[in-house]
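chain below, 163 aa
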Amino acid sequence: MPIKDALLAEYDHEMATTRKLLERIPDGNLAWKPHQKSRSLGDLATHLASLLLWTPLILNEFSFDLVNSPPNGAGAVGRADVLSAFDRSTSRARLCLDKTDAELMAPWTLQRDGQQMFTLPRAAAFRTFVLSHVVHHRGQLSVYLRLTGVSVPAIYGPSADEG
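prediction:
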């Protein structure tokens, strides 16, 4: 099986699951934080929607320097905005996955101010920076939802709210 096919199956599954959680963010509670050092619910949802913007940087480039990172955008205004941004970024990211095995195994380097932090095959960098990163923050979002009284959908199996 080509690497692309395996990545697409994983990508489609994880993005569908992530969208289920984003569909439940409460519009009237986006400023809520579980702790003063935590992101707000709206900021976390916005971050989840924008993480996929890393995909073309990883799959279409040979390296990226963090000094070129844009500043963090403003938090979400509402659930519809988050879902719209997520849908746009997931469809754009999915198009970037149309690569050969050789392209997906080509090295990609992350730098900070010209200094190499690490180099990984593009497929591994995509799984780390995009897929695993989304799963990590989706886990946070599931806790935020629970703490704000919103039922948590099934993710990798039944949740306590949806058996």
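The chain is about 50% helix and 10% strand. The two ends are 34 Å apart (CA to CA).
thats it, cya
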